[in-house]
Amino acid sequence: MQTLDYKGKSVIVTGAGSGIGRASALRFGELGASVVVCDIDSSAARSTVETIQAAQGIGIECVADVTDPVQVDGVVALACDRYGRLDVMFNNCGGSFPMPMLEIDTAEYRRLMALNLDSVYFGTMAALRVMLPQGCGAIVSTTSGAGLGAVSGLAVYGAAKAGVISLMRSVAAEYGKQGIRANTISPGAMDTPGMRSWLDTKPGGVAGYNDAQPQGRMGRADEIADAAVFLASDLASYINGVVLPVDGAVSALLASPQ
Ligand SMILES: NC(=O)c1ccc[n+]([C@@H]2O[C@H](COP(=O)([O-])OP(=O)(O)OC[C@H]3O[C@@H](n4cnc5c(N)ncnc54)[C@H](O)[C@@H]3O)[C@@H](O)[C@H]2O)c1
Fold first, then answer.
1. How confident is the prediction for the chain on average, in pLDDT?
2. Catalytic residue positions?
3. CA–CA distance, 251 with 170 (Å, rounded to integer)
4. Distance, CA 92 to ligand 1 centroid (Å)?
5. Residue nearest to atom 40 of ligand 1 (CA)
6. Which helix (H) or strand (E) holds 134?
7. Which protein residues are within 6 Å of ligand 1, measured from CB?
8. What predicted TM-score, i.e. pTM, was given to this entire model?
9. Ligand 1, atom 14: nearest CA belongs to which residue?
10. CA nearest neighbour of 241 among 174, 188, 187
11. SS3 181
């Protein structure tokens, strides 16, 4: 019987110092994985590793900027050096704040594309170079409702996140016969530090945003973590190239005329 047992498996999580990435790194660690905690913020990465280790899990921090392909290659190399293989690549890092399309200048466009799409491309390429010779591997990437449908103020972020979906589908189609699975998670509004830093600037704040959600609350980061550990596991062995919304019905509303 297949189970959610990650003992002996090597897992990289990007953006693992905060929010969804942190919750996912902790969850993989609880399930026995050897986790590479990748973040640009060293103290945030260290805190996640310390929490994994305090629960008797295995984790190592890796400070890297996921927009730089050389640094991303270094993250994968670290996983292979320390743990001898790479079973799961969770390309989670990304983010944006809403901004009218015409106010996004070229520099900001490039920054958003780099953070939200280049990072996933670099992580996927580096992971494939290790996973293909292994004959197996699971790649999971984080998109957004803005990648599924238009969200006012998130044009470039949405374009990048739509690209993430397309990239994962292509990996599934091209490398499925070689033991690779690639899937995408689409979070709804999640109560993370990243989300809170934006909500703190809004008049309705957290309470107003909770109320606006179809389930009456934002999601929790650990609710995405549970989807990630499932999609990356053998329990999902024939799930390949899908987009899994974990969004409390937000995408159901996107699909309906409002
Ligand atoms: N929170 C939400 O409501 C929501 C909704 C839809 C999609 N998402 C997506 O989920 C993912 C995680 O979001 P979150 O809210 O948990 O994020 P967050 O802002 O709480 O945390 C992001 C982490 O990424 C790190 N980071 C930023 N730039 C980096 C870089 N260049 N290299 C390495 N690390 C870097 C930060 O230091 C931070 O620890 C993102 O891809 C985001 O687009 C979030």
1. 96
2. 157
3. 22
4. 7
5. 94
6. helix 119-134
7. 15, 17-21, 39-41, 44, 65-67, 92-95, 115, 142, 144, 187, 189-190, 192-195, 221
8. 0.98
9. 19
10. 174
11. strand
- Pairing mode, strands 137-142 and 180-187: parallel
Helix (H) or strand (E) holding 249: none
Q: How far, in Å, is the centroid of ligand 1 from the Cα of 20?
A: 7
Q: How buried is residue 113: exposed, middle or buried, by Cβ count under 10 Å (0-12/13-18/19+)?
A: middle
pLDDT in tens, 29-63: 999 999 999 999 999 999 999 999 999 999 999 99
Strands, E assignment, the chain = 10-14, 34-39, 58-63, 88-91, 137-142, 180-187, 243-246
The Cα 207–Cα 103 span in angstroms is: 28
Question: Cα–chain-centroid distance for residue 160?
Answer: 13
- Using CB atoms within 10 Å of the CB of residue 238, give its burial: 0 to 12 exposed, 13 to 18 middle, 19+ buried: exposed
Residues 6 or more apart whose CB falls under 8 angstroms from that of 51 comprise 26
Ligand 1 atom nearest residue 143's Cα: 7
Domains and CATH numbers, the chain: 10-247 (3.40.50.720)
Q: What does each C-alpha distance from 85 to 20, 40, 81, 89, 137 come to in angstroms? A: 24, 23, 8, 11, 10
For 80-122, the pLDDT digits (tens) are: 999 999 999 999 999 999 999 999 999 999 999 999 999 999 9
Q: What is the residue whose two structure tokens read 């993989």?
A: 28
